[in-house]
What does this fold into?
Amino acid sequence: MRRMMLLPRMAFTNIRNNGSTYFPYMGASIFAIFTYFVFDLILQNDIITTLPRAMYAMMLVQIGFWLLGIIMVPFLYYTNSFLIKRRKKELGLYSILGLEKKHIGMLMFFESIMLYVVVVVAAIGMGLLFSKLIFLLLINLAKLPVNASFGVSLKAVWDTLLFYAFVTGLNLLVNLFQVGKANPVELMSGTKKGEKEPKHIWLWSIVGALFMGGGYYMAVTAQLDSMIFVAFFVAVLFVVVGTYYLFTSGSIALLRAMKRRKKTYYRADNFITVSGMLYRMKKNAASLSNICIFATMVIVTVVCTLALYLGMDSVTGFVYPKDFELQFLGENVVDRENIQAVVQEMAEKEQVELSGYLDYQSCTIDVTRKENAFVLRQTEGNYADDYDVMLISLDEYNRMEGKQESLKQGEVLLYSTGEDFGYDTVRIKDREYRVKEELSACRIGEKEENNIYNAYYVVVLPDREQLKAVAADFGVNAADLLLHQFEFTPIGSEENITAFYIKLDKFATGQPGFAAFSDYRDDKADIESMYGGLLFIGIFYGLIFLVCLLIIMYYKQITEGFEDRKNFEIMQKVGMSDGEIRRTIKRQILLVFALPLLGALLHTAVAMHMVIMLLATIYMFRTGLVIACAVVVCLLFAAFYGFCYKKTAGTYYRIVKQM
Amino acid sequence: MALLEVKNLKKVYTTRLGGNKVQALTDVNFSVEQGEYVAIMGESGSGKTTLLNIMASLDKPTGGQVILAGKNMADVKQKEICAFRRDNLGFVFQDFNLLDTLSLKDNIFLPLVLSGKDYQTMNERLSPLAKRLAIEELLEKYPYEVSGGQKQRAAVARALITRPQIVFADEPTGALDSKASDKLLRIFADVNKDGQTILMVTHSIQAASRAGRVLFIKDGTVFNQIYRGGLNDEEMYRKISDTLTVLQAQNREEGAVIA
It folds into this structure.
């Protein structure tokens, strides 16, 4: 009976005594599993049926949930490998003291069980405590009605238990395998062996540089088209591979070069640092590149999230400038004064205010742009060159903008909602016009330089006759298809606006030439829901990446602290003063920390173009805002990173000084 | 004047709460002349290591003085003590204490690098030493690639390269097989012949029998000392062995009295 209790008790003592390595692992696991559980809980709620608009948000949470599972397995595996490395010596000692392999196996099994229980209980407990709050955060971000009900499902608990059991089982298997194949002596000296310096470092440095250069090139030259997501993932992959090889081989090449320069190498401060780093560069570089990549992920995720959060209103405003759009087709069918009067009267009655009231007549043609020429829409070729061109006459334009522009025959005003047109003349099929002025703003639609894929042109022609002629060139009969659009955003309570909508709809459908009356509030809500989902994922992913980063950093310092302890002890005996040791440590840690940070900042800078493009695919066109966010986030991150550096340096120093 | 003088040295270890006191050294007096080769013997717990640590300025005495080359160690400022140790003392340890991160050559250079010598000087000092210690071929290797005896010879080279006033050796043969021990001891004798002062703490009669003088420590004080005089190694071995027998006999008697 007592013997049966011995192993579990030993397992417990082991975990407690190895707290400095186990507790961070447990903390990271708890956070990871907590996030997993909360995502699952939210997904298990049948919100989509009660809140149809939540669909986009939920879809994104679903994707985030799967990705989370995929990311977590290698991360927890990686953390585990630190743990087992630290414990090999102890396990070797048990083995020498007479514990058989199967006993050690049992011991590790009990340890895993205990870890499992602690992590799962804490994660699920915290999940139950905070899930409602987090759910409200999601609802809030997605601008969904707050009265949504939230229940706890047993299925989520079950999923989570299984998922972590899978991860724990995997790690246990790996540990058992590692311990099983090694003999006690190997275990005892497991942490001491110096790593062989890798061969062909120049070759690998070049391979790394090529990959990184390739990734960078892709990122910088990325075009906004259907391949952008593929390009993004390939570029990320290239940069990850490139970072890894450059950190491993590149750093070794550099260190060797430093070592070859005898004059500088044999100086007290360089000597220990360079030799020490060279000694275990391979492992060192692996964790350095991991830190670099995680740091980049944290920065990019936070930049996107922050930019989305701050830019959300402008996005919905850009896609749907006004909530209501009332459209009539045909020349001279609409009495615009009459309609305006009716609309305003109805609005007043329903206690709704109208903002941004605008009406104008235009005619839209489909074209393909070839440099400065608009030609008939072609079925082949790059669809990025296909544009809508909105034709509008000068008097309409002047009326809309309240301006007194004048145009001679053969002159036009031109406006692009995307990139500037940039030519002095424009050829529309066979007609050549001089661009009198390229407008920088127009009430019809906001301009965003980055809006590449749904930008359109507005061409202001001298008179209605010219408009008809141009439209006819493109097969559009302006007499029938002249569009008269009224647009405005009603402001008021939800019910009043709906009542207003119903009344106006009834009136409008009876009018001659009525074409459509659109209420974009739902569509806006869909976008908001999607954005909310993205923001939500962004917040949690930012946190998860940060936790990964911190844990890697921490283990790296601890592992190396223990490894270096003996070395510094020797150096002290050989005549190195406390001050010298402290200086050396500072230098070493600074180097180790500065490299990934610099790498991450460089990655981020290069990635900015691509990030801007990606955000543009979801209508987030505010480049200035994105860049401002990036600068702020980089600065904050660097400060936070510096703080971590100080903390870890302290821990490392304490470990080294325990001589 | 003696190179090293130890006067009335005392060391009391106190447990942290001040409860238990252990008298490691009660009253140690001896001196070492320039060019001497002295071995200190004693059983485990007799205070050998404490004595060595104090002489090497790694530890502070509770009372008494250590005077090295006319300089009282207690007067050396804490700031300068590292540099002092580096420049005046050489160390050889039982477990070698070589850095795995450095090649043997760089290990040997370490103290010189720390005192800021230039590369050329270091090389000039190294080549005769390496030749003498038969480690020329091994200089570019790393400690984990060579045998214990080779490691210890590299450690000796590290101790000698600073041209120290005195070399302290703490059980230098403790981790070596008999052949490697023999080789190392021959090197010590050789180096001593050239005028290097050596102070060695050891358990091994074989090691001690090569020294010019052997001090026996017991219960924290110098119990006895024997001089080589004209004796050869074997006669010295026997003499040490006899002394130790007497020592142990006394121990038994004391034990019997207590019992």
